[in-house]
Amino acid sequence: MLKAQGSDVKGTVMNNGSKGNYAQVNGINLYYEIHGTGEPLILLHGGIGAIEMFGEVLPMLAKGRQVIAADLQAHGRTVDIDRPLSLEGMADDIAALIRHLGLQKADVMGYSMGGHVALQTAIRHPELVRKLVVVSTTFKRDGWYPEILASMSQMGPAAAEPMKQTPMYALYAQIAPRPEDWVVLLTKMGNMLRKDYDWSEDVASLKAPTLIVIGDADSVRPSHAVALFELLGGGKHDGGWDGSGMSNSRLAILPGMTHYTIFNSPALAATVIAFLDALMPR
Question: Domain holding 37: CATH number?
């Protein structure tokens, strides 16, 4: 159960009945919400998104656990600060949030950019992560399809005005404390997305039981998800009649799902709940 430590900025009551809070961590005023009770699960949204993007998935997860959903740096209700946007920096923010809340460990789940932050949290702060769920996430930049990489390379200030016609901007304009920072967000996102990365060695050393989820029509190549599964010890040999040959990693490819539908799919919630509730092999 969550036991808050330190002082929060005055909370705000959201329309969904949850209480929104701000935690001062690493120089940033990080917004988070608490839904449900039980074992803690940190929930992290995708790029240019916010907590709201999880739709009905969040309340489904919160039926059996305490979901702590956060708006990452420069996203949603979390005001940007004078530092570059980086997956490592945001992972350190989440680790600081877990400690701020007085939690010894938490399950951590993220989608797309949030999945990368979740993965980095497990890499950089393994003592804080009980189970890990990464949705539509890569461990190397070339795990994305080429057309997705091309789109990422175009992210920047020039994309700010055209993207004002998207649902992502509509949400941002509604909840961001400073909607005029939209250009800053896209600029920082572009700078981050153009950087190369390969976390193969770090991933191979992870001990936390991990669930990898993608859609069968995702922006992440299925072969890349399989490679991540294998790095985590899965797919090496037959699991056996009694499951004794199974690893601590799991792989789920959801049918009929794209990168743009998976994050609010009930099928995702059902898959994640089964994994979080399951006893894992040693």
Answer: 3.40.50.1820
Decide if 2 is inside a domain. no
Nearest to 78 by CA among 115, 37, 45: 45
Rounded Cα distance, 19 and 123, in Å: 30
Range of the domain at 22: 8-276
CA angle 28, 32, 38 (to 5 degrees): 135
Higher pLDDT: 4 or 73? It is: 73
pTM: 0.93
Q: Is residue 243 part of a domain?
A: yes
Q: Select from 260, 242, 239 the least CA-distant residue to 250.
A: 239
Report the share of the chain in percent with pLDDT over 90: 90
Specify the DSSP class assigned to residue 86.
-
Asked whether residue 282 is assigned to any structural domain, the reply reads: no
pLDDT tens, 6-32?
333 333 334 344 568 999 999 999 999
Query: Can you point out the beta strands (E) in the chain?
Result: 8-13, 19-25, 28-35, 40-44, 66-71, 106-111, 129-135, 210-217, 249-258
Report the alpha-carbon angle 34-65-62, nearest 5. Answer: 60
pLDDT at 170 > cutoff 60: yes
Q: Distance between CA atoms of 218 and 85, rounded to whole angstroms?
A: 24
Spatial contact of 93 and 73, defined as CB atoms under 8 Å apart: yes
